[in-house]
Amino acid sequence: MATREQGAADYLKKHKIMELMENLTSMLFYYRPENPREFLIEMLKVLKISQQSGVKGPNLFDDSNLNAVLGILDPANQKYITFAQYKQALTILGIKDINECPEGVNEDRISHETFKMEAKQGLQRYSATYAQ
Question: Do residues 28 and 36 touch, judged by C-beta distance below 8 A?
Fold first, then answer.
């Protein structure tokens, strides 16, 4: 029989509680609402509606944020980054399940479009902490 601690860890993993808490905490720091409790209640409502409707949930990163990341990774604006840069950037964004074979990997040239698509998909998976 599992120990009490293992049961708790299994519960947290099954219901993605740690991811949910990280997501909510990030939103609090990003938006810094005047009434944090009310904000959290609203975010949980949005997540619930997203779960029920299949519509994208809240996300802290948009195209302008991803373009800023690319501006740092590709200051010469060559329109591509290396695979190592791609992996490092996605990891820093909090994406854990990185596509190891994105378009351009064989040439070690990941296009800006591919990076943004992979980042958006990864961030969407991360923000889907309401999914069971």
Answer: yes
